[in-house]
Every structure is written in C-alpha cells, then in structure tokens.
Specification:
The complex is a heterodimer of chains A (583) and B (165).
Chain A (H helix, E strand, L loop, with lengths): L1 E5 L2 E5 L5 H7 L23 E4 L6 E2 L13 E3 L3 H15 L16 H8 L24 E3 L9 H9 L6 E3 L6 E3 L16 H5 L5 E3 L3 H8 L5 E6 L3 H4 L13 H11 L3 E4 L1 H20 L6 E2 L4 H10 L13 H16 L7 E7 L3 H5 L15 E4 H10 L21 H4 L6 H14 L19 E8 L2 E9 L1 H12 L7 E5 L16 H4 L4 H15 L9 H11 L5 H7 L11
Parallel strand pairs in A: 1-5, 10-11, 10-13, 12-17, 13-14, 16-17
Antiparallel strand pairs in A: 1-2, 3-4, 3-5, 6-9, 7-8, 15-16
Chain B lengths: L13 H14 L6 H12 L4 H11 L3 H10 L11 E6 L2 H5 L2 H12 L12 E6 L11 E3 L2 E3 L7 H6 L4
Parallel strand pairs in B: 1-2
Antiparallel strand pairs in B: 1-3, 3-4
Helix pairs in contact in B: 1-2, 2-3, 3-4
Classes of the chains: A alpha/beta (583), B alpha+beta (165).
C-alpha cells in the first residue's frame, strides 16, 4: 500500500492503481474523454489531468500508476491550474468542431457537451483559427461518420480493433490534419466493416451515429394502405428503460409492448417467437449433423455482425455456419407467409418493422436469400435508440404506461428465447431442446446450463447427454471469436457446437442499444447488468424450453410440418458467401 | 469520401515482389517490424501504393488501415510515385515567411494536384520539403536537380513551361 494525499486528505492506495481509479475509490470523480477502460488508456485527451506534488507538469490521471515512489505525494484534482487546463483543452477542441449542436443526433447525450457545461466553457469560439472540413461518410447501410464532430479520442478505433479484431478504421495523417477513417480514405461500405456498431456506442460525440430509419417507419404508419407490424428483440427490453430513467438492467417488457401499440403499429410481435423457432430448427440441424456426419463444429448464425465477419475473415468456416436465418428474419418470414395467409393479407401490403439492439440488422434485412414470401422478410430495422426517439417524438410518457402483452399469435416466447440476448443464451436455449430430444424427449431433461453464462469472452463446457459427450464453446466479441476459431482451425480445440455473438456480452451490449457514457461504462459492467434482466425474465417463465411453446407447436402443425422440413427450409433457412471486401 | 488510390496503374517485376517478400519474412515477428518493412518497400518500389500496402498487411496479419495510418503519419512515405519531374517547394521558416506557401498553392492550382500527388500523365509530382539550406534565395523550389530562388507566384507557369518534353 502507498500513502498519498488527495486534495490534502490522507489515503492508502494499492500500488499500481491509477490516480484516476484511486480517486474514484475514494469518492472523487475525475472527468475523462478518451479513456475507455480495458481498451483505450492512452492519455491523449488531457481532460483527466491532475496536479501532483513534485511533478513539473500536469499528470494524466488515467495512465499514471501510483508506485512506492509516490509515497507522501499530494494530488490536487480541482486546483485552479487543473480546472483551467481542462477548460482550455475543451476550448481548443471546440476550435475545430462542428458545433451545430441543436441539429446533432447526440445532443443531450454528448460527452463533450456535458464536459463543457461541467467545466464552465462559456463561449464556443474562444480560439479562432483554421478548421478542417471532412466529407460525411454515408456509404454504409447501418451508420454514418461525420469527422467534423470527431475529437480524435480513438475510442471507436479501439473498439473496432480490440473488441472486434476488425480494425478497418484508424487515425490517418498527423497533427492538426489527423482524421479517423479507413485505409486510402475508402468508403466504410467498401471495407470489411462488420456493421456491429460498437464504434458508435464508444463514440463520445455525434461523429458516429446509426443511420436513422425512423422517418420510413413514420411514413409507413401514416399510410392507410399498409399493414404495419413490428417485432422486438429480447435484448431491447433489457436496455430501453435506461433511456427513461430506470436503473441499468431493469426489464421493461410490458411497457415496451404498450409503447409500440401506442405508436400505432397494427400488430405488435415479439421476436422471442422467432428465437424459439430458431432453436427448433437449429437444435434439429445440430442433431442431424451429429448423427449423419455433417460438418462440425456447427456455429450459430443469429448475429449478422458475426456472419459478416465469418464471410470476410474466416470463409473456410462457412460450411460450419448453421443455415438457420436469425430470429429477426425467421419471425419476419413467418409474418409474411403464415400470418399473412391466415389473416388474408397480401404480403406486399405488409410493412414489417423490427426493433433491434443491433445496427448490423439494418444490413441483414437487405441480404440475399432473405425473402420467403418473394418480398423482403423484414422491411425496416431500427435500433433501440431509434425507438427511444420515436417514443419521445410521439409524446408517449413511457414511465406512465401500463404493462401490456404482445399480440398473439407469434409472440409467445419461452424463457429459452428471452436469454438469446445474452452471450451463451442461444447455446443454453439450444441445449434445452437438443438434450430433451437426444434423451428421448424426456420432459425432465435439464433446464439450466449455467456453465455457458457470464460475460467472459470465451466459455467452454462439456455435457454428458445420454452417454454421448457434447462439447460446446461460446464466444462474444469478434476478437474472442478469432481466438476461438484459430484454435479450432489449428486442431487445438475439439468442440461440436459453437455460439458466436459479434458484440462483447452478446446483444444486450449491441451496437444499437441505449448508449451509456464512458463515465458509466468504465465503472459498471453494463453487459452483466442487462443480462441479469434477461435471466430473471427466463426464471419467471413457466415455459422455458422452446419446444414447449403452444404457438411453436401450432405453426409446425399448421404450416411448417417438422423442423428441417422442406417448407421450413424454404422459409426459415438461408445461405452465405465469402466476401472480398478490403480488410 | 475520396478514395486515394494512385491514378497511375501499378506494375511490379517478379524481382521486386521477391525482394519485398524477403524483407517481410526477415522482419516480421520482431516488435516494431512495420517501419523497417515500409522503408525497404519504398526503396524497392519508390512509393507505397495500395497493392504494396495490402501485401504487407496480409503477410503481417494486420489490418490495411494500420499500415496506411503509419504511411500517412510519416512524411518520408509516399502513396504516389514521383513524376518525371519532381517538384519540391521549401516550406521551411525563411521560405514560408517570404511567400513559398503561395508558390506551392499556385503549383497545386496549375497542375491540379495536391502535395504528395502526381499528374495523370506521370510528368509532375509536387511535394513540400523542409529547409534545403538555400535560405538566402528564399523562397526556393527545386525541379529534380534544378534550383529556383527568389520566386514569385507569377514565375510559376513560366518555369513549368521549360519542362514541356
């Protein structure tokens, strides 16, 4: 332990703790801008500077580990020199920043804006001088980059490289001309960007944002000729409440259904139905591959970011991918085939909207081989954040809504479906059904497979199923997926079934979820908190295995036949192809 | 976004490719290998086009952007080949104070290229350089080995005309 003073008061801190963490442990918050715990500790932005006795200049608190040589030193966290320096740093950032704040997607949630307010920046043009101008990159289906609002903190670069092992964005040029972009200033759409959106949730300002598709939804809702339906993914209910003041990890299932109904959708479905359907098909496919010598390990296909990654970076694993469409696409396909026919609606008249924790879903809806009824399975995909915008714009007071149910049919979701939103959830859900099947449809087969739960990047487990060993692996965050797949490729790891989710922690931490500022992310594991909400919902369900759902039974009895049937393949399965985009 | 791929088609001899592969093989695995690889690659090809950077990225198992980020950070690297006539304008302190910035901008305007680029016919390339030790002649520019001093903006077009062949 090292004895130090913080603002003249004595404390003992563990050697190696950074100044920033030592202060935080003792109730003092030091503002930050570029620091993102675990991935971006670069001391670049100089917002977290403090005054330390014996030091000639101000010290960046985020990267300074306290050592025994600091014994007895006094750290000043809000001296005039410190506050003046932080303020000037902000003024300099503003001197080359597009300050069209009123029309900015991030206004109100911008970390730069919040710091300016906190540190008393009272004029936005303190330093007059040269300004860079950058073209806005709108090439991608899921997002845009406006470098005119970029502060070069590199949080997006770190997210792309460290979480995802992708690295298609980085800092180009140097000094004042530094800009974050792609190699050779390529459009993002021409690179092997996987559309995960982790860069967006890492960005402190409005430089990165999802493509806003809410106007398309408003237009559809206002069109009397259209039947506008909506489905919402399991993870959305774990994060949406945060935008309305609920603590992180508060499930808001009932109010979510109520808000969608009040927005005017003709039918409000739960993607959980699609998730249960995915399990029926995927468990069947897995058993078939095991029993009939198919390609193993089989790898899940629910995460469109992961699919894009596999197609660009590991095309040799394409035969391992489950041919199942994602829950979003399965639900969409069933709506435009089975549901449309049952209700005598022309699928061409349906506008099918999805609310997703994901930006890659915007890409997925436009993929080939995703049009079961001859029209796209899903027409518009919006993120959790875009739904927040719509709820606010419609004047819906979310906290005052009653808890309502989704519309039936196509909404019953078992506990297995709800946990899809957390890493390991799809694996656990699949095991619940696969083990039941493999043990001769034994109703007492296990429900919980806790070894695959938790936020660790890679999880391995082995189960004894009716005398056969089933080895499974779960990875979230594509950098972890890369590690896992490299081991499999090199023959160092023998597993039969792999779940991969592009985003660290799974969909609960998806690139389309409510953005928590670094301030919160650095000290709270939002992945774990949101996952808890889903596991709570699961434990409260009476039906926790996909095959138990009466709606699933009904759709197989009346439409699909058996899992893996010809109709099921036409409606619920898809194909993949290697991509040659620039890596 | 303006894709910055060089407009001059890339060609390489088997000998150049062999040399590059040897350098990568020798250096990769060492910490900080990218810099020496890029330096050798520029010696081999004269510049670092997307094709060369892609080979380096793939062989080293790193993203192309990582390579490009380093290439654009250091002034010593060029993503465009040099022209038949290589124009360097000194933007050192003395020349700059004497108006070399205006000369540089005029060249850029007349040749329709930015610093670091090459005209489509491969004839002229333009770059800014630091002090060449001819401050007494400020502002100064060079075209290959020819030195032009006490320049004014109005002289630019006349000088370029000398290199019509």
């Amino acid at each position: 332990m090292v004895n130090i003073k913080i603002n003249g008061i004595d404390y003992q801190v563990e050697e190696g703790t950074t100044i920033l963490e030592a202060c935080r442990q003792n109730g003092i918050r030091i503002p930050t801008l570029c620091w993102l715990k675990d991935i971006n500790a670069i001391g670049a932005c100089r917002i977290c500077v403090v005054e330390m006795s014996g030091a000639r200049s101000l010290t960046a608190a985020c990267v300074y580990p306290i050592s025994k040589f600091d014994e007895g030193k006094n750290i000043l966290t809000h001296s005039p020199a410190v506050l003046e320096s932080r303020k000037m740093t902000l003024q300099l950032l503003l001197s080359d920043h597009n300050m069209d704040c009123l029309a900015c997607a991030r206004s109100g949630q911008c970390e730069l804006q919040a710091l300016c307010k906190e540190l008393g920046v009272d004029s936005s043009d303190y330093f007059e001088g040269a300004k860079n101008t950058h073209d806005i990159d709108r090439s991608s289906k899921h997002m845009y980059r406006d470098d005119n609002k970029c502060i070069s903190c590199r949080r997006c670069v770190a997210a792309c490289e460290k979480y995802q092992g992708v690295g298609v964005i980085g800092a180009n040029e140097r000094g004042f001309r530094t800009e974050i972009g792609c190699a050779f200033d390529m459009d993002l759409a021409d690179t092997a960007c996987v559309s995960c959106g982790q860069c967006i949730t890492a960005c402190p300002t409005g430089a990165l944002s999802e493509r806003d598709d809410t106007d398309k939804v408003w237009a559809a809702l206002a069109d009397p000729e259209k039947v506008v339906v909506v489905q919402t993914a399991p993870a959305v209910r774990a994060s949406l409440g945060e935008a309305f003041g609920y603590p992180i990890g508060t499930p808001v299932e009932g109010k979510l259904a109520a808000s969608l109904r009040r927005l005017g959708f003709n039918a409000v479905f739960d993607t959980n139905f699609g998730a249960d359907l995915t399990i029926m098909e995927e468990a069947n496919e897995f058993i078939d591959r095991v029993q009939n010598g198919g390609v193993l390990p089989m790898i899940t296909s629910c995460s469109p970011g992961w699919i894009r990654y596999c197609e660009a970076y590991f095309p040799e694993f394409l035969p391992n991918l489950s041919s199942c469409k994602s829950p979003q696409q399965m639900a969409g396909a069933i709506i435009k085939t089975y549901w449309a026919k049952k209700n005598n609606i022309d699928p061409k008249n349906i506008v099918s909207v999805s609310v997703m924790p994901c930006t890659a879903k915007k890409f997925e809806i436009g993929r080939d081989d995703q049009s079961a009824a001859g029209v796209p399975d899903v027409d518009i995909s919006i993120t959790t954040r875009e739904l927040v915008k719509m709820i606010n714009r419609a004047g819906i007071r979310f906290t005052e809504l009653p808890d309502e149910n989704f519309d039936t049919p196509l909404s019953e979701g078992t506990g297995a479906a709800v946990i899809f939103g957390a890493t390991g959830g799809v694996m656990e859900a699949a095991l619940r059904t696969a083990v039941w099947k493999l043990t001769g449809e034994n109703a007492d087969s296990p429900v919980e497979f806790k070894e695959v739960r938790g936020v660790e990047g890679i999880k391995l487990a082995e189960y004894d199923v009716a005398g056969t060993k089933v080895k499974v692996a779960v990875a979230s965050g594509l950098a972890n997926a890369k590690k896992l797949l490299t081991q499999v490729k090199n023959g160092e790891l023998d597993v039969q079934f792999i779940e991969i989710m592009a985003c660290p922690g799974g969909c609960v931490n998806g690139g389309g979820q409510v953005i928590q500022p670094a301030e919160v992310r650095n000290f709270t594991d939002i992945r774990a908190e949101r996952a808890k909400a889903l596991y709570t919902l699961d434990s409260e369900r009476t039906l926790r295995k996909s095959y138990e759902s009466p709606e699933i039974k009904e759709v197989y009895a009346n439409f699909l036949g058996e899992p893996g049937s010809h109709t099921a393949h036409e409606v619920l399965h898809t194909s993949y192809k290697a991509s040659s985009l620039s890596k | 976004m303006a894709f910055k791929k060089s407009i001059v088609p890339f060609t390489q001899t088997p000998e150049q490719e062999k040399q590059l592969m040897e350098v990568i093989e020798r250096e990769k695995g060492h910490k900080g290998a990218l810099m020496p690889i890029l330096q050798h690659a520029q010696e081999i090809y004269g510049y670092l086009p997307i094709e060369v950077q892609t080979i380096i990225a793939e062989e080293m198992g790193i993203p192309l952007e990582k390579v490009y980020g380093v290439v654009t950070f250091y002034a010593q690297f060029s993503i465009n080949p040099k022209g038949k006539y290589k124009i360097s304008v000194c933007l050192g302190t003395a020349c700059y104070v004497k108006g070399s910035g205006d000369v540089y901008n005029k060249l850029s305007e007349v040749l329709k290229i930015k610093g670091g680029e090459l005209t489509p016919d491969g004839k002229f390339s333009l770059e800014a350089c630091r002090c060449i030790g001819a401050c007494g002649l400020a502002p100064v520019m060079t075209v290959n080995d020819d030195v032009y001093g006490r320049l004014t903006v109005d002289e630019v077009e006349g000088i370029l005309a000398k290199y019509e062949d």
